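Our preliminary data section would be incomplete without showing what the modeling component actually yields. Below, a chain of 298 amino acids is followed by its predicted structure, encoded as tokens that our downstream tools consume directly.
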Amino acid sequence: MKKHISMLLALSLILSLCPRALAADSRFDTNPSSLSGVTVSKAEVLAILPPEADYDEVYQQIVTDFDDISSTCVEADLCTPVRINEDGLVLYEVTFPNGIVNQITSQRNSDDCVVLDFYEGDLHNEVIFLKNGNLLVDEQLVNIQGINATTQSREEPSGVTATPRMRNSEFSLTPWGKASDYTKEAGNYRGNKCSWGVTTLVSLATGTVAAILCAAVSAGIGYSIGYSIFSSIAAEMITRCKVYGMEDEFFSWYFDRFERKDSMSLDRYYKYEGACYSKENLKGHKYPHIYYYHNWFS
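Predicted structure:
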């Protein structure tokens, strides 16, 4: 089954370096870009509602949480509310495509930054998503905006003019149509020196490593990518680190982009084929990866 992000962005925000990546979910009304007008199913709220709690208050908290969680690129369709903790925060179960399950809570700090706490077994990490695009992982700075990234991307056809239309986008680990139809070269992207910000991956949950990978690649490519796309690589990196130790304080990545041969200007299909590496400058252990991207105007 395809795991994907569904984004609905105003045309004026398309070129933003930090667009909001959001997932389609049957629990929600349309307009997931801001989750305004979103509805959460009554059954989900009642399933975690303590006898003394107010339904409307818990409902609004879940709506707000999904808004904040989605803004960090965790797809909403991966998340299920499971209980209300003693501190009043809602605990969500996040099931990645590779079957790994994390739990998260969401809140905002005094600087109005989204704070996600990731739990996996005995592991617990606090990830703060700073306003400038960088991360704080267990109080250690992950310098995303300072990465050495290069982009050689072919321009989109100039025949598309700015209109009040909305751009819809989604990602997948499997192709739309045949993989062999993605043959038109459409640019390449590369991040030579991306900071982990931590001394070892062994102390990090899968979701925490995915957060760092997604933030780094998203900053280099220019739009947000969901955790489901990089959760498998995150798990592989953690497993290798347990055996061989931390190979470098930096990692690197590259992706070549190919467009499907029948793409049209307002309905485009892309394949991103490349890899992440355990060291800077595309050195160290190689983690090959392919994902697909579809965007269209409505």
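The two ends are 25 Å apart (CA to CA). DSSP finds four helices and 14 strands in the chain. Preliminary results of this kind motivate Aim 1 of the renewal.
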